[in-house]
């Protein structure tokens, strides 16, 4: 769930995710291993991600209400109006500087 978003609290590097089986379920582990990959150092830290993903999932369900979803969709529509079709494909960089 958090692939590419988790940062290591020890060194600040982005953590990678790897999965293992727990019974029949795939469970994520978040691993800070950049030093291990680049310099053959031991991993900085490993966080078992099953409970972390469950907690973040609960927070998301609480945060994504009909109101917040409606606001997010309205903002997206407004940004799409401000962009030409080619810019939408490229993430519409000019929308970032249009007053939002």
From TrEMBL:
| Source species | Polaromonas naphthalenivorans (strain CJ2)
Q: What is this protein called?
A: Recombinase
Domain (Recombinase zinc beta ribbon) spans 1-36
């Amino acid at each position: 769930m958090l692939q590419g978003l988790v940062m290591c609290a020890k060194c600040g590097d982005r953590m990678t995710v790897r999965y293992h089986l727990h019974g029949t379920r795939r469970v994520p582990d978040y691993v800070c291993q950049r030093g291990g990959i680049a310099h053959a150092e031991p991993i900085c830290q490993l966080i078992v991600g099953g409970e972390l993903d469950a907690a973040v999932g609960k927070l998301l369900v609480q945060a994504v209400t009909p109101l917040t979803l409606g606001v997010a969709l309205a903002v997206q529509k407004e940004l799409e109006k401000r962009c030409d079709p080619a810019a939408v494909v490229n993430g519409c960089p000019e929308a970032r500087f249009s007053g939002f």
